[in-house]
Design a protein that fits this description.
It contains 6 helices and 8 strands; from the N terminus they run E-H-E-H-E-H-E-H-E-E-E-H-E-H. By secondary structure, it is an alpha/beta fold. It has a 6-stranded mixed β-sheet with strand order 3-2-1-4-8-5, with helices on both faces. Helix 1 links the parallel strand 1 and strand 2. The longest helix is centred in the middle third of the chain and has 11 residues.
Length: about 170
């Protein structure tokens, strides 16, 4: 069994999915399965994904249900105890999986790790960098008072058992 399940949901993602897949496959951390959940794409997404011949890729097609349901269904397919989220229009830094995995391994009390992200435009031009929340008091206050998300989905890695409990 792989140590990490990378879960990517996509819908009509032909414009960027190849670059997203490539960024996952180029990771310095290699012990992962890559679940790609196609939520009813009508473009060339399926053909692009199926052009890869990497045994770590597990492609699933399902009629369109929306992102929430697609995430639930795809995370159920994850066989590893740790799940890394990825979006079909995002690019991972080459050490992302290793750094996040190492953090969770060295901090067993943590159930989720996230990072800052660089926002880029369609051409890959840098726009801005997000600021990660690191103070637990600030995170708790934001979650309880505003409901504001404190993580960016494609920068998260979390323990599957905690996800199931939640």
């Amino acid at each position: 069994m792989a140590k990490v399940s990378v879960v990517m949901c996509c819908y009509n993602a032909e414009a960027h999915i190849r670059e997203s897949i490539d960024s996952v496959l180029r990771q310095s951390f290699k012990d992962f399965e890559f679940i790609i959940w196609d939520d009813g794409s009508t473009d060339a997404t399926r053909e692009i994904v199926q052009s890869y011949k990497d045994a770590r890729i597990h492609y699933y097609y399902h009629e369109n249900t929306g992102l929430g349901q697609a995430l639930r269904l795809s995370c159920e397919k994850a066989s590893a105890p740790i799940i890394a989220r990825m979006d079909a229009d995002d690019i991972c830094e080459p050490t992302r999986l290793q750094e996040e995995y190492d953090y969770l391994q060295s901090h067993p009390e943590s159930v989720l790790v996230s990072s800052a992200v660089n926002y880029i435009d369609e051409d890959g031009t840098f726009l801005r960098r997000s600021l990660p929340y690191t103070d637990s008091r600030v995170i708790k206050k934001l979650l309880l008072t505003t409901g504001q998300s404190v993580v960016v989905h494609p920068s998260t890695m979390f323990r599957k058992d905690a996800y199931i409990k939640a």
